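Thread: sanity check for a docking pose with pyridoxal-5'-phosphate

Original post by kr_44:
Hi all, I'm comparing my docking run against an independent structure prediction. Below are the sequence and the ligand SMILES. Could someone generate the full complex and paste the structure tokens? I mainly care about where the ligand ends up relative to the chain.
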Amino acid sequence: MHPTLASDLANIDSLLERTRRHAVEALASLDDRPAALAPPLATVQPLPERGAGLEGALAQFAERWAPGFSGSAGPRYLGFVTGGATPASVAGDWLTSVYDQNPTAGIDSAAPDLERETIARLRALFGLSEAQQGVFVTGATMSNLVGLALGREWLGERKDVRVFEQGVGALGRVHVLSAVPHSSIYKALSVLGIGRQAVQKVPTLPGREAVDIGALERALEALGGEPAIVVASTGTVNTVDFDDLQAIYALKAQYSFWLHVDAAFGAFAALDPKHAHLVAGLDLADSICIDLHKWMNVPYDAAVQFTRRRDLQVRVFQNSAAYLGVPADNPDFVHLTPENSRRLRALATWFSLAAYGRAGHAEIVTRNIELAQALGKRIGDQDGFRLLAPTRLNVVCFTLAHDPNEASVNAYVRAVRDLGDVFITSTVYEGTWGLRVAFTNWRTEEADISRIFDSLKKALNAVAR
Ligand SMILES: Cc1ncc(COP(=O)(O)O)c(C=O)c1O
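Reply from moderator J.T.:
Ran it for you. Here is the predicted complex with pyridoxal-5'-phosphate included:
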């Protein structure tokens, strides 16, 4: 064994203790470090011939890289839709690396069954029936991709085409109907060979991002009996609007379509009694995308993908090799997603659910919603800001009252970032450049709201000058 490796192995206890101390300090300083920062100029240093050992590597990381990292796990990083990592999920994530299990094939370890138990607990958390079978993937984009791959195979079934063998070319034109699909839907369609242009935008209800059911019905009718894929959103990324899943499902009585629901973070509305109705009917979907590194607050990267048609999933993703066996009733994970070998990423979620249960996670969701509503009210009442939509759930969508455009809004985002207290991101909503403040972090508390609001106001002065 190389001497540095041997020495690290011999000293693993004290070395991991140092790493633990670094981690604890990083977590303890989350409140004080900048929520985000302009990326410092990076210099790429060459590959070392002789390594510095774990102690040296940790010192180099602490000096060269850690100071440039954002406080994205902290309470006031409110850009994109970004979760943090609960204490138990951090511990679970560490142990994922320690045990280094590859849960793809179930002949050598209990790891795949831990993932199955985690899936069953998530199903219960979101009120899904046992007909929905799930698997872990890296994020909502991958979950959407797998769901749409199943929709593609289902279209083949309708047309007597085995897409998994003949390829997507044999399928002919694919119709994907959706009102406000997330950008990852387009990416997934591109990867799947269906193409971004397959999306046919369906009108929304007036002043909303939720699909107009009458318009969707007319669009389905116009297909003249051609089967389609309908992508529903619960909720949308700008204003967190929810398509009416029960009404969409009811259209199945007359029209033939695969119903995929992108519930990346909106699925968590199910945990809050006042908002659970927004995702009523989620269980009716043929495939569902739910992200976990957002509102579940587990570390990157984790999402879950559910479907009622696991048979199609095995057709698409089967990885045939004599040593892996034939997929049976309870197929190994290797036959269910694009990856073969992968980490046991369910462990962080398993830890968080075991540690905090339904009630712990529901409290995070309810608190985040209340904080978003409180900030939305203050922004709505403040000169210099204008709400672009009511704050329906956990995202405040607003803009600068005076001439919002790409340059001014992005200058404002940088001004907020450079103050260091808060991070928010820009968007375009109904043709207007705007801003999103997304609450999904388990650490954000009421006391943060004044600090967030003060910082947003201060940045307004900075761009006005
Ligand atoms: C509704 C929705 N779908 C999909 C995604 C993509 O998620 P990820 O970046 O985890 O792949 C996001 C991310 O914000 C989202 O909000």
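Residues 346-380 form the longest helix (35 residues). Hope that helps with the comparison, let us know if your pose agrees.
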